[in-house]
Every structure is written in C-alpha cells, then in structure tokens.
Amino acid sequence: MTASLEQLQDLERQYAIPTYARNPVQFVRGEGVRLWDDEGREYLDFLAGISVLNVGHCHPRVVEVVREQMGRLSHATNLYYTEPALRLSARLAQSSLGGKVFLTNSGTEAIEAALKLARRARPRGKIVVFHDGFHGRTYGALSATPQESKQAPFAPLVPGFEAVAKDPEALGAVVDSDTAAVLLEPIQGETGINVLPEELLQAARAACDRTGAALLFDEIQTGMGRTGTLWAYEQTGVVPDALTTAKALGGGLPIGALVTGQRLADVLRPGEHGSTFAGGPVVASAALVALDICSDPELLARVRGLGERLAAALAEVPFVARVRGRGLMLAIDLVEGTDAVALARRALLEQRLVVNATSPATIRLEPPLIVSEAEIDEAVSRLKALAA
After folding, report:
1. Which is deepest, 47, 103, 195, 237, by most CB within 10 Å?
2. Cα separation, 331 vs 358, whole angstroms
3. Please, which residues have CB within 8 angstroms of residue 197's CB and are 6 or more apart in sequence?
4. How far is 282 from 224, CA to CA, in rounded Å?
C-alpha cells in the first residue's frame, strides 16, 4: 500500500534533514517519457531526473539486465574481479579518450577522483575553474564550484582553487607552471545551460599544452548523448586529458566514472584511491546497456534534430525571451517580470509538465533522449497554456 503524500510530508518533517525544497507531488511509476503520481495522474517528464534518465524511465533492457544481475551477484568489492566493471571500463575508454577508467558511485565522486589525478600528476598545483561552474557538493568538488551561496556556509574550503572569468585572456593570465588542471563544463548545466564558446575551450587547451597542466572536462550532465554526440567535447574540436561522467551513465542507477587519455592513464597508483561500492556488478551491467543505447548513431542524430525542433518551438512561447543550449540540453530565459520558480511549479501542478528552474529567470528542459516529435509538441503546448 502506497503512503499518501501527506504521510510522506509528515515523515519528512520528523526524520529527513531539510536540505530539499520538494514539490508537493509523489511519483510512483515511470515509463519512457511519462511519470504517474499516487493519484494516477500522468505527467510529461522534460527533466529526466536532471539528465539521469537519458534512456527514459524503466527502459526494458535496463530493467532486464538489472534483475538478472541482481539475482546472480550483487556485490563483491574491487578486491576481486567482476566482468561488468571491467567491460564497462573498456567501453568508456574506447568510446572517448582511449586511456583508462576509475569507476565511482556519483558525479561528485568522479570529480574528486579527477582532482586527485591532477594533483598526483602535479603535486600541490592549483586548480583553475570558471565562474558559474558547478562540479558537486563534497569538499573538493564544492571548492571547484565558485558560487558564494553554496560555498560560504561551509568555509574554509579546500585551498588551491582559483576561479576565473569566462574569457580567453583572463584564463591565459592565470594558468602557469604551478597549475595542476583547468576544470570546466563544456556547457554549464546547473547555472542555466551556458554553452562555453569554442574559442574559450581552445584557449584552455592551449594554456594547458603550454604549461603541462591537465585539461579536465566535466561531462556529468553533457555526456551520454545529451547534446547530440556521445560526449559534448566531440562537437568542439577540443580533446581534454580526462573527463568525468555520471548521471545518465547508469540508466537510472547511481554510477560515475573518471576517464583519462593516455597521458594520465597511469598517474594514480595502487592504494591511492578506491571505493567500496564503485563499479558493482548491478550498476555496471545497467551502465553497459545505457551506454549501448546512448551510443547509437541513429539516436544521436535524432537528438540533434529534435533539439532543433524543441528550440524553435520554445522560441514561439509568449513568455520566452531567449533559448539556448545544444541537442536536448536546453534552457529558456523568461521575459522580465516572469518568475521561473513559480512558472516551473505551475507547469508541474497545472499542466503536469516536469521542468525545473535554475534561477529566478531561467527554466531548464532536458527530456529523455527517446522523446518523440509528438511529445515535444505536447510539452510546448503545455507551456503555452501557462501563458493563456
């Protein structure tokens, strides 16, 4: 028997540390691009668990492999060999930078591994990051996230991080022989889908080549086909020394990875990093299926085409001032005087459309990559209804 929303809210008030501002909806089932609440009402999901469900809710292939693997072997630790983890490592390396892989349980853990990798390659070197970036909430990842509201309550942070404006000259001025790495998101997701200009990425690559620093791409949100190629860097002409992935990698289960190129493949040595649960057989099996689905050339071509269709349609919505992004990673800036937080809540409660506000003026849309043309048109119609 499913608990009521009111019962869950009571449990939250009594027992959950209040770090989430939850919407007053209890989801109980998902399939494809749809969700259902405890009252049986159907919703159109254009957030995909914040780009986690790129393959959609409860993809049959993911469900099948998880059930099968869970019934055979659920955990063994990394003290022993298990086939799914090593097959996944091979697939990730072969699909991207050609080096080696460290599997993690989440995106922020993948960032922590990347920071340790960079500092191991250049001990005590500083990490250069960009303003408006977001890399996670553990101490190292938080220290790489130059947002006052997120950092200030938890100071002092990890030393050795320097934030710079998103400008090639400013970047070139701070990257020097004491820099361990430049860490960036090719498209900054949590602060509103801000696409970094190609000239900035090229400047980062040039600065790292000049100084020997590592160029690290955070592809936790941009990867797994979200922008229309398996990895966002493939559309930029700039190849990083390492990248991080997570979110959609597990097909709905928690997993992340640090993937290196050849130069950094053997920097970390036995005993210098580890994780009890990382790369467990169940999540690694799910990730192999998700990676297979998201690597499909036909799907990736559809993402590019559907992204163009969605962006064009969003531009016709009355309260939309600007559309930006790439593939099915899009944001809309709202006309002055429109409250994005209130609008996202209305979309959920009045139109049963799941989106989210990344700021008081911006709404993010990241539907599952399996979305159809009809579902895109339906989502836009629901948004337009809010302007009526």
Report:
1. 103
2. 9
3. 166
4. 19
Cα 286 to its chain centre, rounded Å, is: 17
Token representation of residue 53: 């469900």
Main-chain dihedrals φ then ψ at residue 141, nearest 5 degrees: -65, -40
Beta strands in the chain (DSSP E): 27-31, 34-37, 42-45, 101-104, 126-130, 161-164, 179-184, 187-188, 194-195, 214-218, 242-245, 256-260, 320-326, 329-334, 353-354, 356-359, 362-365
> Under a CB-based contact definition with an 8 Å cutoff, are residues 304 and 162 in contact?
no
Strand 242-245 and strand 329-334: pairing?
unpaired
Question: How far is residue 381's CA from residue 365's CA, in Å, rounded to a whole number?
Answer: 14
* Average of per-residue pLDDT across 129-145: 98
CA dist., res. 129 & res. 110, Å (int) = 16
For the domain covering 73-294, report its CATH number: 3.40.640.10
pLDDT tens per residue, range 30-47: 999 999 999 999 999 999
CATH architecture of 5-58+297-385: Alpha-Beta Complex (3.90)
- In 3D space, the residue among 244, 266, 239 whose CA is nearest the CA of residue 257 turns out to be 244
Of residues 114, 369, 79, the one with CA closest to residue 227: 369
For the chain, which residues make up each domain, given as ranges? Answer: 5-58+297-385, 73-294
